[in-house]
Amino acid sequence: MRRIYSFLLLMVATLSLSSCLDSDTTSGEITLYDDTAIIGFGLGSLNRNIYVYATTTSSTGEDSTYLDTMYVQKINCSSYHFTIDQNNALIYNVDSLPAGLDLKHVACSASAKNGGTVVLYIKPETEDSDSLFYFTSVDSVDFTIPMEDMELRAYNGYQNAYKAYKVKINMHQQDGDEFAWKKVTENSTLGALTDVKTICTDSRVFVFGNQGGTGVIYYSALNDGTTWQQANSNINMLFQADIARNVAVLDNQLYLLNGTVLLASADGENWKQINTDAISTMGIKQLIGAANGKLYAFSQQGLASSADGEKWTEEVLDDNKKWLPTADVTLLERTLRTNADATNLILIGNRDTLAYPNDQNAVVWSKIEIKGETNNTWNFYPCTEQATGAPHLENMQVLSYGNNLYTFGGKHINSDKYTPYDRVYVSYDGGLVWKADTTFQLPKEIHTTIPASVSATVAPENFVWMIGSPNGEVWRGRLNKMAWKEEER
Prior knowledge:
The chain has four helices and 35 strands. By secondary structure, the protein is mainly beta. The strands form nine sheets. A six-stranded mixed sheet has the order 4-5-11-10-7-8, covered by helices on one side. It starts with 5 loop residues before the first helix and ends in a 10-residue tail after the last strand.
């Protein structure tokens, strides 16, 4: 910053420092002396230091991590709006800046009413130190200085009065695009299960799986994850081994198709049987999920839905019924931003690899449900470009997270190009086009100790729960910005 020369300092000091500030602060009212005020404030590009670490393994097998490279990234912050509160003489941004920016060297600009002069005041360290500096966009300002020790002043055209403002720059303390995982526990019992599915209600996280040929259910409190216990059923029947392929959550209640019996439970232990003729008359054979207030199941004719589990209706499919998935099936819903009354349903999964050995991609179906309309047609998304189609993965997990769809899984079927769980794919358009994603990252341990399989689900408060086998690792994670208020993202 360039210093203001002594004659200006003397003039400003003698004419305004005492009289104007005293008058402004003791009256309780804001008076713009000679129409002086800051009317504009904005930022330019700020620096963020990016640190890249590398890990090496010694001859004894010990890993050591070191700083490999560091580079400076320029972040354009000109789009962040600053509010100027004239009553409280405060300048601040509602939308916080990205984390990690260098606030010690901030390029910014400010303008005063009627062409007035903006000056930076910094509390002097000693009596002989300079305290007033010209404020220009060419210079940078150190906003790490405590707010009480620094202010912007708008001088009027006569340089005989000013109004002082405090500046508060809000910056996130977390990188919003960082996915933070916590390994909650390892549970060997969970790890020994096969054909696993993880789902959540608003109070519990459930793991459904095959334990020695019998279906079992384990659960933990949603705010816990370290203590797991097996659900004791109140009904006198064994759960079938394919339990994980036949469970859904609708309106915070579990539904389970156990052979030819449809069950419902709020806690996974106290079940009631739902009376329905559809299992036999419509050939309901697999409960695949719930979306937009209805249960969905594969039927003899293709696909059926029900709002209560008792009355079922055949869904209308286009002419591509042979492309319905039979393995790793996931049903999702997305609210359309363009129409509040419309919901996009997505059905995704794999076809039988023995019957269709040449499939290069997972299969995707879609349907738009509009309020007041019934039985709109499900349409198959033909894959015209293998590279952008849904990846063909064993143990494929598909999640609706934020506004996007994400998928990851084990081995790429019909390809040895990538290792299992090496990457996450994202779709921004409801499952039509997919590409590798860099934001949604799996836990680092997965890349060193590759699990045999993983089961994942999205829980309340935007947490992702993930169970791995055979070690029974339980992870819980969340994209940092998904914990922020909507206006902060």
